[in-house]
Amino acid sequence: MRNYSLRRKVGELSIYERIESLIKSKAMTKKEFCQRLGISTGNLGDWKRGKSSPGTSKLIDIAAYFDVSLDWLMTGQEHRADRILERKEIYAAEADWVRLGSQLTDQEKAFVREYLEFTEYRRRMKKKQGK
Length: 131
Known about the structure:
By secondary structure, the chain is mainly α. The protein has helices spanning 15-25, 30-37, 41-49, 56-66, 70-75, 81-103, 106-130.
């Protein structure tokens, strides 16, 4: 039998456990929850036992109903926009290097390459001296 439980790490709540905590926070019964969201009590039981997990559309419905993010409902963590922005900035910087590199003459490219190799050499030497 395949286990669809979506636990991330030991100690973290499963999706079902987060849903259960939301139900309790609204002082609802599980039956009320199922009726309001069109979920069979059998499906809810399967989620609890880890036999299945809610589909994408149900997760969206549940998140909207309880006014929580999908990120939190699925992982227990809020979306971290700063990580995305950080990566976006890295990609933008890399794109700038590509753009700048394409504008250099062959002689300028050779000079930059030589400078980067020298910088790497100095870094290795500092590491050796530090050990």
